[in-house]
Amino acid sequence: MTYRLFEGKEHASSYWKYRISPSDQLIQLVLGFLEKQKGCPFELAVDVGCGSGQGTVLLAKHFTSVVGTDVSPAQVEVALQNAKEQNITYRQCVAEELPFSDSSVDLMTAMSAFHWFDRPRFLQEAHRVLKPRGCLALLNYTIDMELSYPDCCSHSLNEICKEFYVALQPYRSPHLGRSSIELYREAYESISYPDKEWQECMLVERSMPLSSYMGLVESFSSYQALLRDDPQKASRLSQGICQRLMSIMKVTSVETEVVVAVKYFYLLACKPQEA
């Protein structure tokens, strides 16, 4: 079954505020793969485990219709509150039982969500609903993001960031194993489609306030687990990391802009014509 860890209203709101969406470059790689394998028109895209919809909206201008699905009512509520595109709808459902007919979907995406699914069942469901030559795109990024700031030693910043990540490691869900990238690689190897692609590290740089970087890490399941277990410890950890980063940067405002380097990896696969 899908692991349900992101369902509180406050956590759903932080998802919308802090979680990053794939870059235009990455979305174009997905669309380029789909066009190469299937061709136009692009009619229906389904974004599974859509959360609060940051990634879902990126598909709207490329498809006649886009549907975002999520198991969490709170996440779907936030997505609906921020919905502006007329061709996007949202549905609450589990990833392994999707409300779509056989061979009806051009593109199915899961952006930073696949690792929480019942992965074999989800892959079977994706196979069922994808059209012949329809494509599956599973995208995610690693937690070991790196910071840079002008006239500042990036190595010193990132040593502190590493301490943050290491402190959260004991609170990592056992469902994720040692590394989520290994789960995606296993999925890639298990998919029998002849047309598929695997990319292990695509670096994307984003500028954001330091407060947003902190909010992003705090939205991860490991920090949320620590927060539930010991709120004071979680707060001390986060505040301490933030203060040390600001000290090295020689700034007094948590709204100071930093550059965050995010390491994406992805799996693309095309359902064969005869399957």
Plain-language structure description:
The protein is of the alpha/beta class. Helices cover 39% and strands 24% of the residues. It contains nine helices and eight strands. Strands 1, 2, 3, 4, 5, 6, 7 and 8 form an eight-stranded mixed β-sheet that branches. The protein is elongated, with a radius of gyration of 19 Å.
β content, as a range? 15-25%
Tally the helices.
9
User: Main sheet, how many strands, which sense, barrel?
Assistant: 8 strands, mixed
Structural class: alpha/beta
Calculate the terminal CA-CA distance, rounded to whole Å.
25 Å
Shape: elongated
Using the CA coordinates, give the radius of gyration: 19 Å
| Helix fraction by DSSP (H/I, runs of at least 4) | 25-40%
Task: State the low-pLDDT regions, or none.
Answer: 1-9
**What is the helix/strand order?**
HHEEHEEHEEHHEHHHE
Please write out the topology.
Blueprint: H1 9-18, H2 24-37, E1 44-48, E2 65-70, H3 73-81, E3 88-92, E4 105-111, H4 119-129, E5 130-141, E6 146-148, H5 154-168, H6 180-190, E7 195-209, H7 210-218, H8 221-229, H9 231-249, E8 257-270
Parallel strand pairs: 1-2, 1-4, 2-3, 4-5
Antiparallel strand pairs: 5-8, 6-8, 7-8
Keywords:
275 residues, alpha/beta, 9 helices, single chain, elongated
Describe this structure in a few short sentences.
The chain has 275 residues and is an alpha/beta fold. The protein has nine helices and eight strands.
